[in-house]
Amino acid sequence: MAQQATTPEKKPYVTPFSHRFIAGGIAGVCEILVMYPTDVVKTRAQLTVGKSKMGFTQALLDLVKNEKLGMYRGILAPILVEAPKRAVKFSANESYKPFWVDKNGKLTTWRAVGAGVCAGLTEAFVVVPFDLVKIRLQDKSNAGKYKNTLDCVAKIAKNEGILTFYKGLESTLWRHGLWNGGYFGTIPVIQKLLPKPESEKSKVMTNFIAGALAGTVGTILNTPADVVKSRIQNQPTRPGEPAKYGWTIPALKIVAQEEGLGALYKGFVPKVVRLGPGGGILLVVFELVSKMLREMSEKKNA
């Protein structure tokens, strides 16, 4: 009896690092171009000591009306880092997943959180200098101090030293670890709860909803660390003068004691308005670009 020919088992597709890097970079730039003005409002709210004078909607309208292009002040720094930042975020998360799967090869919710935290800690090292420059430029009180991004970089380096660019690293590790853990840990949970998409259009909507809700969870978790990070990075370095805000935990205590617990969530509304929908934009664009790159690769190898 002749043996029946067997077709070789098709190996599961593994997304190359280069594809994850490109898709993450494009996703990040798309998100920041759409949502950046809300980030300016968020940073200014976080830097305000005491009660904020206006709510999010009024602050955003005031920004658009009175400063026009000022609502994009400081955007060069995050644009320059956005591609590598988001690329590192998604690439690192995918790279860490194999180390977090259980013995059955499954990534449970808490294991997904662990992979996300590791991705966030990795991402933090990339973004610190760019974040510091962005915050200095976004602060309205610094409007006459720095002419532009390059002038800001030059003056910080000259007056405060090169190491100043890594001021706030520890608080940035807290911020990114918490956000990414919440984001990547929540996405699969939301996707399981939503109806299974039956078309590409419904898949895009599912990804947007999952990403937006996951971005909101991440924002709830990391806003206190973000508040103190903004203050740590915005205070100038003066030789022989101790900084008011140093490490994250003591800084959280100072803000809570002086301004109340609610101050730890200053800028939360503009932050969640950005990172909720922003998280949806990130996931949708990342998945779409990844799919496009995969199809291009398969056609090339066919």
CATH architecture, by name, is Alpha/alpha barrel
Rg from alpha-carbon coordinates: 21 Å
- The average pLDDT is 84
Beta strand count:
0
Number of domains: 1
For this structure, the quaternary state is single chain
Give the CATH H-level superfamily. Mitochondrial carrier domain
Distance between the termini: 34 Å
Q: Hey, roughly how much beta strand do the residues contain?
A: under 5%
The ordered string of helix (H) and strand (E) elements is HHHHHHHHH
User: Which fold does the CATH topology refer to?
Assistant: Mitochondrial carrier fold
Secondary structure category: mainly alpha
**In terms of per-residue confidence, which ranges show pLDDT below 50 for 5 or more consecutive residues?**
none
How would a crystallographer describe the biggest sheet? none
CATH class categorisation: Mainly Alpha
Query: What form results from the Cα inertia axes?
Result: globular
Number of helices: 9
Fraction of helical residues? over 70%
Please explain how this structure is put together.
This protein is 72% helix and 0% strand. With 302 residues, the protein is mainly α. It has a single domain (17-297), classed as Mitochondrial carrier domain (Mitochondrial carrier fold). α6 runs antiparallel to α7 (200-234) and α7 crosses α9. The longest helix has 35 residues, at 200-234.
